[in-house]
Amino acid sequence: QVQLVESGGGLVQAGGSLRLSCAASGRTFSDSGMAWFRQAPGKEREFVAVIRFGDGYTSYADSVKGRFTLSSDNAKNAVYLQMNSLKPQDTAVYYCAATKALIWVFPATSSYDYWGQGTQVTVSS
Asked: Residue 30's pLDDT band (boundaries 50, 70, 90)?
């Protein structure tokens, strides 16, 4: 019954912006956290950003720091990823993930219990 649904992906030119959304249903993750990962063809799934809801802590991969911003709306059980100054190397399928854990290793895919289906982000030169 738990489901994460991403939206907002698309095609954008370098330097442009996109805003991804992830809506969770079936349970609340207000005691734990949610994250964004991305995966380019032939590459490992890569950590992008995480939010720990208990204290609002956020952390970002070095490659996106200063360009991407993760936010949440607890009333809607949703998280968002605002992506600015996009680069071609940001091209990937972006996945929303959620954990039931109170403590977890933020960048580890194994720390997350639920995953969305992914949304494609393509950045052209």
From this structure: confident
